[in-house]
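quick one if you have a minute, typing this from the bus. below you get a single protein, a line of residues and a line of whole numbers that encode the local backbone shape. could you go over both lines and see whether the tokens make sense for that sequence. anything you notice is useful, everything is just below.
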Amino acid sequence: MEKNRDIEKDDLEHVDDKADQRLDAKGPAGSDGDDPDHGFTLREQRQIVHRIDRRLVVILGLMYCVSLMDRTNLSAAAIAGMTVELNLLIENRYNIVSLIFFIPYIIFQPPSTVIIRKIGPRIHLSVICLFWGAVMIGMGFAQDYGQLAVMRTLLGVLEAGFFPGCVYLLSTWYTRYEVGKRYSVFYLLGCVASAFAGILAYGLMQMNGLANLSGWRWIFIMEGIITCLIAMIGYWLLVDFPDAGKSDWRFLGDRERAWVVDRVNRDRGDVATPPFNLRRFFSAGLDWKIWAYALIFFDTTTVSYALAYFLPIILRENMGFSIAEAQCLVAPPYAFAGIVMFAGAWCGDRFHVRGPVIVANVLLCLIGLPIMGFHPSANVRYFGVFLVTAGANSNIPAVMAYQANNIRGQWKRAFCSATLVSFGGIGGIAGSLVFRNQDIPHYRPGMYACIAASLLTVVLVGLLSVDFYFQNRKADRGEKELEGADEDAQPGFRYTF
């Protein structure tokens, strides 16, 4: 107890001291219950976790940076001339090309979390990243609407395995009150991509005419080349799951490996992965909370993807900015979103809360959407964009941390990650459709849809919080163990509000 108080005093956020107070000092089989620190000082423990952060969070974040940039750069290409050259202004072709990505993206996500366990994240994530980079290059040479649609479909197939794999991999390495900041840094790098993708696109547009290619084509080609280079870096630097064999842990020694596994086992007791069982994998779907998390993620991605695919267009059509201004003015709202995102993650990890952070972000959306949609001044509407962008994007890592804190068991965690991100893909389809050409310039039906999605999130978080309260009370009275059958339940596990 005295040691835990010292840790809290030193603000060492890499150790879940509250969980350690609840759990037995003796970890699962194979852990060193007499010396849970394995002889490491607090400084050495911090250094080990920082080393993991650099090899895992930063590399995954860089790969997600190009992933988000590649799937959302259609809007930049659209105002750079793609819609005219490929005749996308008729029959809602732009909307169709935007949403067609998400059909294979949703279908191929559940098996991807099984595949990543079989072949390992280093190979799986880097190879699909390399392939979708090649597809991006191919998009730069599309000659008509059909070819572009086929390329977007292939992009959806390849990217399907990336995001759920990252969510799953990160959740296995850290204790429950460490993942919030890690998810935020991971997604924050994606926000950096969104923030500067417009500026990058504007710079690449200046290559118009080089090699007889239009400027919008160079956006796809050059960003595809960047993706391939990042994939090669990922192949050399990514790490495997914490329960992998010694050969996959070359950046940590034996004693360091044992400490990492032991601390996660003391926190939630699910480092080891049981053999894959189809019934056990899909039985996770019987838990209604899995679908509540997924619906919250759907609501969040509906708004965030709507902004990703249409913000430059809205800035141009609704607010009257020039093409150059519309490309560059995307950056400040996403930069602001990064600040809000990390602040919320720090509060969530520091005070061991998740739901209030999500609701606070939703309130930013509910304030910003009416301003963005209905205020007569374009400058004030642009201020609303800041609030909506910050609220929607900050909730992406917040929701990931919410579900990761309240799930136990490797295959249930894998199922939940796949389900969560699949519903995020459905949100992408909705986000691709909410702002229609016929609603220019005010896009009021789209604004109403985003407001409704935000309100639904508040309702779902409220229902989950009530259920968590009563379930935790039952566990405190010794009436049940949470998140697991009797043989693999974790004593002391409690849901995080």
Remarks:
- Residues 1-33 have pLDDT under 50 and may be disordered.
- The chain has 21 helices and no strands.
- The longest helix spans residues 444-476.
- The two ends are 24 Å apart (CA to CA).
